[in-house]
Amino acid sequence: MTKSWLRQKHDEFVRDLLRDFCLSARILEERFRAFEAGGGMVFEVLRDLLGEQMNKGLLWRLKDTAHHLFRDRDEDNPVGQFLDWCIGYIFHETMKLKEDAYQQQNYAPWFREMQNRELPETDLIISRELFQLLMQTNESMQRESRRIRFIIRQCRKLFPIYLADQEKNHWLARFLFKYNGLVREVFEENYRDLIRAIYKDSPEMLEIMASRSLREGGWVIQAAEAAEAACGKWPASQAAALEKQTVDAWRARLRV
Length: 256
Hints:
The chain has 13 helices and two strands. The chain is mostly helical. The chain has a domain of about 160 residues.
């Protein structure tokens, strides 16, 4: 990838970074909660989330996107490097988690069944010792889950700082509008900080920018939904009212 191409696609990469982070964080949190409730970590879910070199999963693509965005270090503003490191850390800890889940899912049942067999004493002693070692992977998964959760929380603090200059990013606005529920779910109490960091004192610009972008793409109904959302949430905003008027006039011409 050339630098010029990366610059050209920068806004899309920024959108992809936040989108894939949110999707990955939600999947991981779902697995952590199931694990805490007594369920398994489910090796197949983690395997699909990670993927492999020739068929990369969501988390692997997230790691690659971070590397593309932050390959040029800015010593005066290291937030990007912090994010790059955090996302790489999540990736590698999830790799460990996947391997531990494989051991628990595929070998723990077999070792448990061995404890009930009538084995020679020597074999029984060995099986118990190996089983004790295998059970330590459960503790490992707890530690890995805690570390991943901690890093995800740090990412939720870093993203508002990193995205503070992205108020003109149409791709980002469209994602934030369309998948607002996902973003709120992942960022929790940091959601307001995220929107305030991007759109400053004009939070209605999220829906307005999304509407403008959808208009430019020819998505009439979706643009109208965004414009109506802007007016509904921010009835005193002149910018929102103007955008809705523009969309309504466009729809009238097209008779949509």
